Amino acid sequence: MSDQKKIHDFAPRTLGAGFVHKKDLVLAIILVAFGAFMYYEASKFPEAPAILGDTLNADVFPKMLITIMFLLVAIIPFEFKLTPDKVAKIDKDRDDKTLTITWLTILLLLTIVSFAEFLGAVVTMVITCLALPLLWGERNYIAVIIYSILFPGFVYLLFNKLLGLYFNPGILEAFK
Amino acid sequence: MEDVIRGFQLLMEVQNLALIFGGVLIGVLVGALPGLSSPMAIALLMPFTISLDPVASISMMAALYCAGTFGGSITAILINAPGAPPAVATALDGYMMAKKGEPGRALGLAAICSVLGGIFAIVIFLFATPLLAEIALKFGPVEYFGLTLFALSMLAAMSGKSSIRNLIAGAMGVLVSTIGVHLATGVERYEFGVPELTEGIKFVPVLIGLFAMSELLNQSKTLNAAVERMSAKALKLPTIAELKELKGTILRSSGLGTFIGILPAEGATVAAMMGYNEAKRFSKTPEKFGTGCAEGIAGPEAANNAAAGGAMVPTLALGIPGSGTTALILAALVMHGFRPGPYLISETPHLVYAIFGAMLFANFAFLGIGLVGAKFFSYVTFIPKRFLWPSVFIFSLIGSYAYSSAIFDVWVMLISGIIGYFALRNGFSPAPFVMGLILGKMVEETFTQSMVIYESNFFNFFESGVFIFFIILTCISLTTPFWGTIRKKLAAKKVE
């Protein structure tokens, strides 16, 4: 039943029964909003000094580009009528919902980067090697611990000791 | 001749040879690992090559590019999961041959056809690059503007899910390239009070984010996916008789691949698909395609590696990337202080010949690596994703930080990755964006100069015949993706 419903839901959008593709319409609105914002920002650029003569103002090129983008974006909601097979493929990808694990991964990566400067390179690497496999369901704890020691160690030796790359010590500075 | 010798002399230094061999090894490895790709590896490597000799770094990346194209076919054949998009067509017959109990033969065919295709393209590359550069030297800003427009329009036909979305992504890339100080007027654009944005968005963190981070997020959805693996004990090279039978397919695909590679923005994926289709069209036994036939492997493999060599021609001669990966090599050239385009050959010819040598070396090296390490590479696919991708994240973190020791770049990398992931879900590929980002400055610069020359009247640009030629090509390439649909609709109307 649920499969049948899914096929029924999928068909009108991709096979052209509707006038516009709803998801692509939302996408187009987002892109237009972004473009409008950039256009507005461009109109605030100061004019080129008169001494530069015929030189184009700094806003001309971005505004021209955004206008072209608007024209292209306007096609997106109707693209399913032009190339139905291709949009059907995109729909297939989109129907595959972003899983909780992906959202959690994004959250974890954002957290790691937020604290990276404070923690320092080595501690950040160790935490990443511990947290990411565990978040992704790895339950071989010994393997995770070995990995979180050996891999950052290898990276530290290779890049810091061998290639001379600067590694921010972060909280480890307190132990020096 | 002196430059050729100098280029080769540079290559022959032990350190440089080791770097190129390292590039080949990394290329085959990342090519073999599903999810990892040569653009991603080049993006990750780029910041670490700053301190290396520029010629050796660029040669290493070129070698990685060649080897990565072959590496992708290893997993295409052994687990039916192409390690890289150009190997998609190889999987059709390669995996079937492996399933029939001949994985070694399939790998051997892929390796030798890749080498032959690669060498064919390198020979063309050697002759075509200086010729093309000589023509391009005569170009003024308006001709160059026409050329960059044509290159950007080719994004419509670039492999991807949608031509319109490719063009939008390209335009978005050009728009992002306008962030920072406008060179002609000194006006700061889109810096939103963030001092780091005054210098513009740096390529490297964006490239790492788009290629590595977005794929990491993508992979988080398929952590438990099980794949059926074939283990290949050894790579079995084809016999002379077998190669004689395949010579037509190899030659045709090599020519086709090189030509497609030379076209701006077209890459190995399109070449491989066309190589496969043409091999089938010319075959005496087309019904055998898809069941594990040798021509089905030779066609795409010769074509995709030839395209890799071909794509280097516009990259080096015109400064217009021939594919997504060469866009990264172009970024690396800029990072190392070279001037991609016709001046590259007139100012630093030894670099071009060193790249040529590196690619030649890479072709033989991956054949050797394939012969010795086929068994090892079939095991590489056993590395659990739960450990592989955190390692990729660490390399991304260090790579983006190492570029200018600024946490801001790490944020740029991560945000680019997150945006890239959602963009990919909505049919936007990263390659067109990258092309736009890299070509952006050139488009604006040539447009501004042309406007000054032609008294701010765009229509005066049409006084140049070369510009008109490129505009015609641009119109053709913009409409090509829709010809198929229009033809189908017309045919359907006729039937009605």
Molecular structure report:
The complex is a heterodimer of chains A (176) and B (496). Chain A is mainly α. Chain A has two domains: 2-95, no CATH class; 100-175. Chain A is built from eight helices and no strands. Chain A has helices spanning 2-14, 22-42, 60-75, 79-82, 84-95, 100-119, 121-135, 141-162. Chain A is flat. Chain B is built from 19 helices and two strands. Helix content of chain B is 73%, strand content 1%. Chain B starts with a helix and ends with a helix. In chain B, helix 7 runs parallel beside helix 19 (465-495). The longest helix of chain B has 35 residues, at 103-137. Chain B is globular. With 496 residues, chain B is mainly alpha-helical. Chain B has one domain (2-495). Chain B has helices spanning 2-12, 14-32, 38-45, 54-79, 88-99, 103-137, 141-153, 163-177, 203-219, 240-262, 268-282, 294-317, 324-335, 342-347, 349-380, 385-404, 407-425, 430-453, 465-495, and strands spanning 180-181, 188-189. The chains are: A mainly alpha (176), B mainly alpha (496). The interface between A and B is large, with 68 and 62 residues.
